[in-house]
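Teaching assistant here, posting this on the class forum so everyone can see the example we discussed in section. The complex has two components, and the goal was to see what a joint structure prediction looks like when all of them are supplied at once.
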Amino acid sequence: AQTVTQSQPEMSVQEAETVTLSCTYDTSESNYYLFWYKQPPSRQMILVIRQEAYKQQNATENRFSVNFQKAAKSFSLKISDSQLGDTAMYFCAFNERGSQGNLIFGKGTKLSVKP
Amino acid sequence: DVKVTQSSRYLVKRTGEKVFLECVQDMDHENMFWYRQDPGLGLRLIYFSYDVKMKEKGDIPEGYSVSREKKERFSLILESASTNQTSMYLCASSPPTGTTNEKLFFGSGTQLSVL
């Protein structure tokens, strides 16, 4: 069975610093997608970044970037120049290509950005 | 802009009541999902639907049923609410499998309390 593991239940970072959130996953598939979703206190889940497994290049979106290690089944999220608005729950998620969008989520990491 | 709307943000019900959670999306998406979110457990899939009148069980379907009579609307039904169904319920939709924009779009959640 596919699983997603986030080993850090809570993290904190000072404003303007860099933080890395860890995620590992387990699958026997070779063709899949990986996601990081952010859930601020408003509860609205927002897609932060998306990576396609067949692409070797790490995805980036402004201050957010990933370190995708396919062989190690690792997908960490780096947030640079952390801002107070980055305070949220972050969920790592995985789905097989062709699985009709059915995502498997990790348990989440609660990130607090301190002024 | 893409929109997934859940009819209630907060809901309080009594044990044994029949509860309907409604979700509407305006993106003409084929796939719709109901997740349950609990602290420390992440998001767990209850049911999903990939077409009108079609439904598939997720990881935790017990005690729930769903209805999809129209493409834009996906309802979650608690036939006889119990206290262990107190949770945050998130609805999501996604475009057809294989599209380049394959990802989930979420509603803002319904916090259900069963007393």
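For the discussion questions: The two ends of chain A are 41 Å apart (CA to CA). Chain A has a mean pLDDT of 92. Think about how each of these relates to the inputs above.
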